[in-house]
Amino acid sequence: MSSSPSDPAIVELNPQRAALPDQERLVVAISARALFDLEDSHALFENEGIEAYASYQRSRENQPLEPGMAFPLVKKLLALDALGRPGVPRVEIILLSRNSADTGLRIFNSIERCELGIVRAAFTSGAPVWPYIRPFGAHLFLSANPESVRGSLDNGVAAATLLPARATRPIDTQLRVAFDGDAVIFGDESERISQEDGLEAFARNERAMAETPLSAGPFRGFLHALHQIQEAFPSEESPLRTALVTARSAPAHKRVILTLRHWGVRLDEALFLGGRDKGPFLEAFGADIFFDDSRQNVENAARHVAAGHVPHGVSNPR
How far apart are alpha carbons 282 and 29 in whole angstroms? Predict the structure, then answer.
């Protein structure tokens, strides 16, 4: 979304909220189009320009927006924060928008109407939002804009492009997050061998390197932040459940398991599917969101659950 040039508006909706060190928080930055269903107005902007868009939003600024694809995820993340359990990192959601603060008033009003505890935001009037992701201390950025997601990943922050859609109804109150492995949690070195030299070479490499931990991928930091929350709860009482859903199969499973053990990270479930379609398994797991570096896998998964494309690694050349 672009607008007439102006300085970005960094907004503190509740300046009384105490600041916490980054290591004591899980911070997720999210774009307005991921949080709310803005596809009609975005299409108007694309077809008729900023003036038509601005007029549209101002005339409807007291009409609440419908929840977007990431809305249930945000609700569950904020519910974790509301538990106030000792030893659990605080959870914070940051809104990043290419709207101006003026045209974004409808977004503010919808946040208030939905009683979302979002207290910080940046409105950039058409400028890129990714430069503000690191200053806010975000562990993850979710957006419908691939360019913004690329900017975030290039600057060392986990990010994924969500396919715009209206929210689906959550199955239960427990937050469930699923990850692909290679090029998401882990680096892409093994995936690179698979694509360049074939599956047999990949299998030989994983057997030979089974005791050598995989390198960290862009989502290792976010996974670690989730693990810190899980550590505060017995597994049977945790409000958060995680899963690895990977195309790997035996014997390539061993290196994954030993890498996670080396990192000291807890994953509740691990599905080694050997190339099977991930969508039905993600639906069975009840994922609130799934992250994968394969655009095809994300599009297939999105028929079942909310899914984010991670444009990283050998599968996503520039």
Answer: 24
| 7 noted as active-site residue | no
Q: And the tokens for 178?
A: 């699923």
How many angstroms separate the CA atoms of 74 and 180, rounded?
Answer: 21
Q: What is the DSSP string of 163-224?
A: PP-BPPPPSSSSEEEEE-TBTTTB-SHHHHHHHHH-HHHHHHHHHHTTTSPPPB-TTHHHHH
Residue-wise pLDDT tens digits, 34-76:
999 888 887 888 888 888 888 888 989 999 999 999 999 999 9
Q: Which of 37, 180, 182, 188 is catalytic?
A: 180
**What is the share, in percent, of the chain residues with pLDDT greater than 90?**
69
Domains assigned to the chain: 9-162 (3.40.50.1000), 175-309 (3.40.50.1000)
In angstroms, rounded to a whole number, what is the distance separating the alpha carbons of residues 268 and 46?
43
Distances (CA, A) of 46 to 63, 75, 193, 194: 21, 30, 41, 40
To which residue do tokens 């990850």 refer? 179
Angstrom distances, CA of residue 42 to CA of 1, 34, 98, 103, 162: 8, 12, 11, 12, 15
Phi/psi for 142 (5° steps) reads: -120, 130
pTM for this prediction: 0.89
Count of beta carbons in the 10 Å neighbourhood of residue 197: 12
